[in-house]
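Because discrete structure vocabularies remain unfamiliar, we turn briefly to a single example record, giving the amino acid sequence and backbone structure tokens:
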Amino acid sequence: MASDEKKLKERLPTMMFFTFQRNRILAKIVPLCVVIFLTGASPCLAGLKIYFLRHAEGGHNVLSQWKDKPKGQWPAYVGNENMLTPKGEKQVSAVPGKLAPYHFDFIACSPTWRTRKTILSYLQEHGIKAEIWPELEEYAYFHEPDPTPAPNAGLFSNGPEVAIPETEAALFTLRDDDHRRIAPSKEKKQATADINAIRERTIQIIRDRFGGTEQSILLVGHGTNGGTLLKSLLHNQKLPYPANASIWMIEQQKDGSFQLMIMNDEAVPKTP
């Protein structure tokens, strides 16, 4: 017994030294992880995957194909954003199979009918809900050079309440902090300011809720916001436009940046 106590006393200085060194290292690493996590650039926890699914083809998407034909010959869906084309109907049917290889920890959806319709069958098949994000609603994209005015004061508070039909109440839920739809200005300079604010708010929500995690989230939206969001997160303006019912995916890297992994359903070779 005395021998064991003697050995322990001899080892104590070494043990105390290593404990001291460990605590010094942790004191530096832990605050760094917290700061980097909050800023969105996390070498401590990386790997967030953001998937974006554009809605299936709607009647408004084919308007240009019919503009030279007499309106009497137009099918009922032409020009109607709340109806799918025959191609769009097939795309919707294919969505569950398209998404089958992926796992999502969270799904957000634009409040519009066509986006809800696009993801509806997938939600039903898996018995899960999507959260409605007003920021994912479609807007006309304008880009005016700086300086632009401040965004409209009531941009996020003056719109109508988001309405979920009773038949879809089991599949969609409203976000706790915002139930109002967003309508940016139609005047170009003001629209640019409003749209920039919407995009920045979307990115901030993603960072606040998922930044620095290894989760996979799916956003279901439109070509305009899907395209501008992708360009902003990648800091790259030369990217293809999101196709109807197609996926893009970006993955967060160890330095907090994002890398494009999938574009319009096609895998993108990973850069070193």
In short: Residues 14-23, 25-45 have pLDDT under 50 and may be disordered. DSSP finds six helices and eight strands in the chain.
